[in-house]
Amino acid sequence: MVEPGRMGKAIGLLGVMYTVGVTMGPLISGLLEVYLGWPWFFFFLMAFASTIGVLYGITGDKGDQSTVKPGRLWEAFSYVKQSFSYAGVKFLSLAAFFLFMGYIGLMTFIADYLKTTFSLPSDKIGFVLSMTGSTGVVVAPIAGVIGDRLGRKIVAYAGGIIMVSAILGLEMTEYSYGQYLAWFALFGAGASTAWTSLNTLAVEIVPELRKPVASVYNCLKFSGYAVAPLILSLFYVPFSISGVRLACLACVLISLLLASRIRSSRG
């Protein structure tokens, strides 16, 4: 669908849509909880999902359909195994795993910290978290264009460094609502920059196995989302939010280290 030289820009624009959801989710849920109560969030979610399904059914275009070849389930797994045999795919997928753990881990526990420590209402907490998406909407397409010109890994490094700077800022400064808004805006800008590059690498690192590579990549990437609350709770209970911040900082640094091992024609 997209020329290789414009892949980063396309992924960046796709990232904008994803980031809009990241932005609006915490904000809308916080507002609904404060003004209508938690049950209304689930009513909203049901109505919203139903609306999306109906609109997709009306406007969706099947486009060109690839020829379906007969085969067995384990033949599909052979492609996945082949994809994971590439060292670059392993490093890329694990980099996404740790980056997502560091990203979602901070978002998860900062919400509980702000509510229990400062009695911040849910709508204000949602606004803080939504700042990560607000800056991401602007940054993602820019990161994609820069990645097309300078290389994916350079942009991924820049995003990771911005995330590290934001986490250190949160750790080293006293709490104020305005400062948290600023730090999370910076954190979101870094995350969107890094994700744009990693997501682009996932579809171009092994072009002939693009789909199975994307499957492996997304599986490990969202596994980081799944295990982050469980693993980081081991730091939150004894060390409070400071332990979580430092653990998330370590996750981002590990992600950058893994990304440095990736070999790509557009690296």
Task: Fill in the keyword field for this structure.
267 residues; mainly alpha
Describe this structure in words.
The chain is mainly α. It has one domain (4-51, 75-259): MFS general substrate transporter like domains (Growth Hormone, Chain: A, Up-down Bundle). Helix content is 84%, strand content 0%. The protein contains eight helices and no strands. The chain has helices spanning 7-35, 38-59, 73-84, 87-118, 122-150, 152-172, 177-204, 210-259. Helix 3 (73-84) packs parallel to helix 8 (210-259) and helix 4 crosses helix 8 (210-259). The two termini are 21 Å apart. The model has no long low-confidence stretch (mean pLDDT 85).
Topology:
Elements: H1 7-35, H2 38-59, H3 73-84, H4 87-118, H5 122-150, H6 152-172, H7 177-204, H8 210-259
Helix pairs in contact: 1-2, 1-5, 1-7, 3-8, 4-5, 4-7, 4-8, 5-6, 5-7, 6-7, 6-8, 7-8
Give a short summary of the structure.
This protein has 267 residues and is an all-alpha fold. Helices cover 84% and strands 0% of the residues.
Query: What's the CATH H-level homologous superfamily?
Result: MFS general substrate transporter like domains
**Molecular shape:** globular
Number of domains: 1
CATH topology, which one?
Growth Hormone, Chain: A
Give average pLDDT, whole number. 85
Question: What is the distance, rounded to the nearest whole angstrom, between the alpha carbons of the first and last residues?
Answer: 21 Å
Helix fraction, binned, reads over 70%
